[in-house]
Amino acid sequence: MNGGDAAAAAATPSHRRLPDFLQSVNLKYVKLGYHYLITHLLTLLLLPLMAVIVLEAGRTDPDDLRQLWLHLQYNLVSVLVLSAVLVFGATVYVLTRPRPVYLVDFACYKPPDKLKVRFDEFLHHSKLCGFSDDCLEFQRKILERSGLSEETYVPEAMHLIPPEPTMANARAEAESVMFGALDKLFKFTGVKPKDVGVLVVNCSLFNPTPSLSAMIVNKYKLRGNIKSFNLGGMGCSAGVIAVDLARDMLQVHRNTYAVVVSTENITQNWYFGNRKSMLIPNCLFRVGGAAVLLSNRGADRRRAKYALKHVVRTHKGADNKAFNCVYQEQDDEGKTGVSLSKDLMAIAGGALKTNITTLGPLVLPFSEQLLFFATLVAKKLFNAKIKPYIPDFKLAFEHFCIHAGGRAVIDELEKNLQLQPVHVEASRMTLHRFGNTSSSSIWYELAYMEAKGRVRRGHRIWQIAFGSGFKCNSAVWHALRNVKPSPESPWEDCIDRYPVELDMIALEESPDFAAANSALYSVITLVCTSWIIR
């Protein structure tokens, strides 16, 4: 689940108010961001220091060097000590410096046209499945206002009447998505499956035995000593978590490749009950998946598209409300679905607040950090009544991949981060064309930017996603060249039609819609003005 599903949250009672984020920003997250910043700076400062030493040595007169050599001959102990210190320092630097991680390429799965679902077909099938008239009307309103087109995809089992959510069909869906993306990835990168040393697969709601990662190992006959991981139950932000895990593994294992596969499985997770708060995934979630090839090989820098700069992960699971706000359970009739708590909006806002507060010092230019720090000091030391300063993230990033979980979240992040329509175009169009593909949506968005020819050398990309638990995770990439779209891009046959004008219909003035939308707007507004600590 994610922030986009919040439109279905129940109305927040009047006695439950959202937190005052202007007074609740925790200083430790600001300190954490600066800790990351200083850690990177200390490593970078060694390089110019060494360059200065070499330049000064080059300017020294030969006679002075000769005198220095004669002096050192009579101070052998000093020479040995100095040499030992230099060798030790160089060894520590080489062993502890983070190895660069490159994104060689990625591939997004595009389902066949036969899996497309029109709204009328969706509602007709829902009626045949026994949904009440009230729930059918609720789903119709969700579809009309979701931002989805009638070209999104649902699995083959859901096209059958009656649907067949069997284990076999769920496996078939997983195989078609994962293998479809991996086949393309191996084909146009030229990397042999045997060369892959690390495999990370994330799928939140479908975790069979053997695991999805084992299915990939078996299909492509990956080597026996591969480091494979299968992440389950981690929601729509698990794609960034998988990238972070792969990065950590590439710091340990030299000269190898890591493959990250992000997907979600719908077949066995379709909700057939009549509780409205559990119906949203049926309307928003669609078939999709992505495979990403990462490398720590220096030789791959020349052909790689991006370098991974930062990953910032925020987890609010220690709080009981955050842990329970998105919860898979059975309804009163024993039908399994995912329920949304009335506290979801406040919890999502708190996670976002923490994440961007930590990320800011790592990515914002000095001018923005100076304004933020000056306002922080003024409010903290002098208790000055200064209007909170909202950092300009457009100075830190050229491109934004906001998880395509729902239209309201995208709209509000655009408004409160002061973004332009072009900055959120990829998120809106991905939601329109492919729906909410869960953790893989940020890769469809990046593919959209590439298909438009917008990613240039030196550009910075911010991927941000929300997930159950509750989590908010960010990844920052740096373009190493002018990026061309990958072969067989999911957008290649339709990119000329985009962007499309979306019908911005206001949400229905029902208690469920109006209250949930109002809560979402309030939270995001407060979150993005919470950089200053009272």
Automatic annotation (TrEMBL):
It is found in: Membrane. GO terms for cellular component: membrane. Gene3D superfamilies: 3.40.47.10. Residues 398-477 form the Beta-ketoacyl-[acyl-carrier-protein] synthase III C-terminal domain. One of its GO terms (biological process) is fatty acid biosynthetic process. Its main location: membrane. It catalyses: a very-long-chain acyl-CoA + malonyl-CoA + H(+) = a very-long-chain 3-oxoacyl-CoA + CO2 + CoA. Residues 93-381 form the FAE domain. Its EC number is 2.3.1.-. The active site is at C236, H315, H399, H403, H432, N436. Pathway: Lipid metabolism; fatty acid biosynthesis. The chain crosses the membrane at residues 34-55, 76-95. The keyword Transmembrane applies. The keyword S-adenosyl-L-methionine does not apply. One of its GO terms (molecular function) is fatty acid elongase activity. InterPro entries: 3-ktacl-CoA_syn (IPR012392), ACP_syn_III_C (IPR013747), FAE1_typ3_polyketide_synth (IPR013601), Thiolase-like (IPR016039). Keywords: Acyltransferase, Membrane, Transferase, Transmembrane, Transmembrane helix. Belongs to the thiolase-like superfamily. Chalcone/stilbene synthases family. This is 3-ketoacyl-CoA synthase. It comes from Oryza nivara (Indian wild rice).
